[in-house]
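Changelog-linked ticket: L34 example.
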Amino acid sequence: MPAELISGTELRKAILEELRGEVARIKEKYGKAPGLVTILVGENPASVSYVTLKVKTAESLGFHEIQDNRPESISEEELLALIDSYNKDPDIHGILVQLPLPKHINETRVLYAIDPDKDVDGFHPLTLGRLLIGGRAVRFLPCTPAGIQEMLVRSGTNLDGAEVVVVGRSNIVGKPISVMLGQKGPGANATVTLVHTHTKNLADHCRRADVLIVAAGVPGLVKTEWIKPGATVIDVGVNRIGINPETGKAILSGDVDFAGAREIAGKITPVPGGVGPMTIAMLMKNTVRSAWLHLGGGASEA
Ligand code: L34
């Protein structure tokens, strides 16, 4: 029997519906909407596509949304000054600078410049430090890992004591998700193995996984034979492998050999329509959380 699909598109609907209720309560209580600014530097086609989806989703929820697009030629100093102006803007509760940035800009410096209380992307070192400590210290979960955890929980995948294997050690996905699923608490308590380009016997590790999370950015990296029968497979890859000549749109493919994996796995996420839409839903959730914190005066509490 083919695996059950965990649809990010479907789960997103339920999450956005929940958030709509919260936005209404915020407006009623404070007379203000959650405020989000998305800063996009340059015109990388993938970034343009993701940021456009973020802006549309924010608008559909009734956020105060600013789409701030800047040319590739913007200097680092100018970008830092721009971030500072949003740090000081009381109507903005979340600041997102879409990555990657052009080579002449130091990404780390830019991520450091964002007020940690407005770090709805979850990339600031303070935010990541809070995540490492866990429990009540956590402020914002990075969006893609948060989306993965939601997919696992909402699909009824058991994580308590489960063998989780994470392929890829990026700051955006692999490192934070491996910490999150290993924490004490509901939706976690897993035994996590983080594997990467220097791992010996990658296939053997994957074959042990009750939950396999693949975020390597290599199309088709994970072969059908690497999957444990009945496992839950989360494919984080969004690789642009070509252009559809009829529509002119990019053809997307994940890091997992989907057709084969679907015959072996218990549950699997598709690409597109999997983790991507969840990333955006979690950005909205973080922005709503930030709005509550700022408007309720709790943003600077430890
Ligand atoms: N600052 N930079 C910052 N924050 C982020 O959270 C991101 N990321 C990653 C790249 N850079 C970032 C995203 O937004 C990846 N990412 C992302 C977001 C959404 C989608 C994919 C990646 C998504 O919605 N993908 C759709 C297809 C979209 C299309 O057709 O291009 C999907 O169904 O997978």
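Closing comment: Example verified and attached. The chain is about 40% helix and 15% strand. The radius of gyration is 19 Å.
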